[in-house]
From TrEMBL:
Keywords: Amino-acid transport, Cell membrane, Membrane, Transmembrane, Transmembrane helix, Transport. It is found in: Cell membrane. Pfam families: BPD_transp_1 (PF00528). The keyword Ribonucleoprotein does not apply. Its main location: membrane. One of its GO terms (molecular function) is transmembrane transporter activity. The chain crosses the membrane at residues 21-42, 62-90, 102-122, 142-161, 243-265. This is Amino acid ABC transporter permease. Belongs to the binding-protein-dependent transport system permease family. It is a multi-pass membrane protein. PROSITE patterns: ABC_TM1 (PS50928). CDD domains: TM_PBP2. It comes from Cryobacterium psychrophilum. The lineage of its organism: Bacteria, Bacillati, Actinomycetota, Actinomycetes, Micrococcales.
Length: 317
């Protein structure tokens, strides 16, 4: 009969019938139908001019704004990471002055909205008309342009968040690692940058990837200070041809494309820094290893009538 072991050495496969979840299947069909109806309504909407979307998707004005958005994202993240690592090390320092300054920086920039910080940097000339020392000074509006104000606002705000992310990653590393390296004669700075931080990257990378995606979308805020980013360029075009919704779709397509690329890069980095921790080799290595002659991919169950050998007490029944 099915499901009962045979008396010989061969095993009869168990005929298992999977449990049917009718509620999940019906809800899945409903969701797919609603999604298909929405996409059909959008695709066949007479008020939506797809030719305008196609004409502006790779237009020079949109591409120039796209380049500004990518530049702002990369440069702001570089500033944020450098500041975040420095402030996190200061925050963990036994020096009370450094610790207090780092805590104050995090408190100020995390406690105020990034939009307010952008407006403050852009209007810096109201408080400091000129920047410099003595006779060597420049007009503030010449130095802090809309792009520089956007870079300062986004980068300094990101530094406060990255400081907490890096601090959490450093604290996740066992303190015995630091003690062992210092017992071997390594200095505190070498211990931090050669022992602790490389291990903390496994914890830092996932939230850092989220911060990159958040930064990419947060660059749209610089539109309020007239920085020529992707959304600003789309609004400039729509103010001339009055196709507002179509240009917003163009900007959304590019934001989705950039977010997808950032997500894929984040996944690759997570796999790279998780090597040796998860306990499993990459898929390609596992496949090649299993192709070796004589390699058993799964344990083979002994025949039913074969006596079980006890390695300690001899053969049993």
């Amino acid at each position: 009969m099915d499901g009962q072991p045979a008396s010989s050495g061969t095993k009869t496969p168990i005929r298992a019938i999977p449990v049917r979840h009718w509620g999940q299947q019906i809800s899945g069909v409903i969701v797919v139908a609603v999604l298909a109806a929405f996409l059909y309504a959008v695709a066949t909407n007479d008020n939506l001019n797809w030719s305008v979307i196609a004409a502006n998707l790779f237009g020079p004005t949109i591409l120039s704004g796209l380049w500004v958005t990518i530049s702002l994202t990369i440069l702001s993240m570089i500033i944020g990471v450098i500041l975040g690592v420095s402030v996190a090390v200061m925050r963990l320092s036994p020096n009370r002055v450094l610790n207090s300054v780092a805590g104050g920086y995090i408190w100020v920039f995390r406690g105020t909205p990034v939009l307010v910080q952008l407006l403050l940097w852009f209007n810096m000339a109201l408080f400091f008309p000129r920047l410099g020392l003595g006779e060597f000074s420049l007009d503030t509006n010449t130095v802090i342009t809309a792009f520089v104000a956007a870079l300062l606002g986004l980068g300094l705000n990101e530094g406060a968040y990255m400081a907490e992310i890096v601090r959490g990653g450093i604290l996740s590393v066992d303190h015995g690692q630091s003690e062992a390296s210092m017992a071997l004669g390594m200095r505190r700075r070498s211990t931090m940058f050669k022992i602790v931080l490389p291990q903390a990257m496994r914890v830092i990378i996932p939230p850092m990837g989220n911060q990159v995606i958040t930064m990419l979308k947060m660059t749209s805020l610089v539109t309020v200070i007239a920085a020529p980013d992707l959304l600003n360029r789309a609004q400039v075009i729509s103010s001339r041809n009055f196709y507002i919704f179509e240009l917003l779709i163009v900007a959304s397509i590019w934001y989705l494309a950039l977010t997808t690329i950032s997500t894929l890069i984040q996944m690759r980095l997570e796999k790279r820094f998780a090597r040796g921790v998860a306990g499993t080799a990459p898929r390609r290595q596992r496949v090649l290893r299993n192709l070796k002659p004589g390699r058993a991919t799964s344990p083979v169950a002994p025949p039913v009538d074969q006596p079980i050998v006890d390695t300690k007490g001899g053969a049993g029944s």
